[in-house]
Specification:
Number of helices: 4
Number of strands: 0
Shape: flat
Order of helices and strands: HHHH
Number of domains: 1
Low-confidence stretches: none
Largest sheet: none
Distance between the termini: 25 Å
Helix content: over 70%
């Protein structure tokens, strides 16, 4: 997770929304806790909405599957 965290920080510094979407989704997939996963998914979803990319629909569906309405 340290490498992922470093990549997230770099993407934030570069304001690379596409990388942030992928990295936060990766983080969501790497944890075994639903709440933590949804925390990361929410971030990925927000970045996807800001970027106006189709990934937002799939991320929203994942959140809804876990009972979160984003």
């Amino acid at each position: 997770m340290d490498d992922l965290h470093s990549r997230m920080l770099s993407a934030h510094e570069a304001q690379d929304r596409m990388a942030l979407i992928k990295l936060y989704a990766e983080a969501a997939d790497s944890v075994n806790d639903v709440d933590a996963s949804c925390f990361f998914l929410t971030h990925a979803y927000v970045f996807a909405l800001e970027a106006g990319v189709p990934d937002a629909k799939a991320l929203h569906a994942r959140l809804k599957h876990h009972g979160r309405e984003a």
